[in-house]
């Protein structure tokens, strides 16, 4: 696979995000305290920074998207509210806190200066958008939002300054109309989208790196000719139900299907919604899963001395002398 298709970690994120070896994130506190954690950039930046998805680094990082300001920058949404159903013209800027002016110098990663994720708080609507930046530093994009309710915008970018780290900033957007909250779909290892069937193998575990493999088929046949999308064969975003902590990751090195794999570590136990973007037949498709990350595995207890055991019990366990 050529260098352009090799993984970089746009993660850690399923944010929710999973703290991922090729992604953002890391161990964080309970959902109720997550917002107090400093929002972290991806464990491995788009530009190829060394990832921090192992050991103490993964445990120390927090998922992105929980704060509107981080690293000296603030996400300034200039479209405070829109109406459901009609195309919405979204405008925003990333302000440099030192000057109060919109940032105009970005590092291009995966062919884009900034990746914009839009999701409803009930996780029933998801959009991966690529806005255009004006000369004044203000970004704009048109998006159709089918349902009313509260949404979260995530701006994923790296400032152009030398040594700048990748950031994911988040802010809320109100969409007017008659609001009908939707229940989160039940956890499942299979889903369908646009005639494709996608199967998930692997279960995220809090604090432990696990491989997640997504396999794509159509009409009962494996899809072996996935097309590159933003420099990779698949992009995975995860959002944690409740606070929508965010994680966006890229796959491990591999071929054009039918499987795309990710190394993932859930930051906490909880329910996550995974969104896989893949390109085939010249179009980008999105497959969504609900997954549950359980309690982290218990640490093995140190072997205790055998003092005080009856001789008969010692013999049964092989410790009698």
Summarize the structure.
The chain contains 2 helices and 21 strands. With 321 residues, it is mainly β. The strands form 4 sheets. Strands 1, 13, 14, 15, 16 and 19 form a 6-stranded antiparallel β-sheet that branches. Strands 2, 3, 5, 6, 9 and 10 form a 6-stranded antiparallel β-sheet that branches. Strands 4-12-11-7-8 form a 5-stranded mixed β-sheet, with no helix packed on it.
Summary keywords:
disordered N terminus, mainly beta, globular, six-stranded antiparallel sheet, disordered C terminus, 2 helices, 321 residues
Describe this structure in words.
With 321 residues, the protein is mainly beta. 4% of the residues lie in helices and 38% in strands. The chain contains two helices and 21 strands. The strands form four sheets. Strands 1, 13, 14, 15, 16 and 19 form a six-stranded antiparallel sheet that branches. Strands 2, 3, 5, 6, 9 and 10 form a six-stranded antiparallel sheet that branches. Strand 9 and strand 10 form a beta hairpin. The longest helix is centred in the N-terminal third of the chain and has 6 residues. The termini are far apart.
Topology diagram in text:
Layout: E1 19-20, H1 55-60, E2 69-70, E3 73-77, E4 81-83, E5 87-96, E6 101-102, E7 114-120, E8 126-129, E9 132-133, E10 138-144, E11 149-157, E12 167-176, E13 190-193, E14 196-201, E15 210-218, E16 221-222, E17 235-240, E18 246-249, E19 259-265, E20 270-280, E21 283-293, H2 311-316
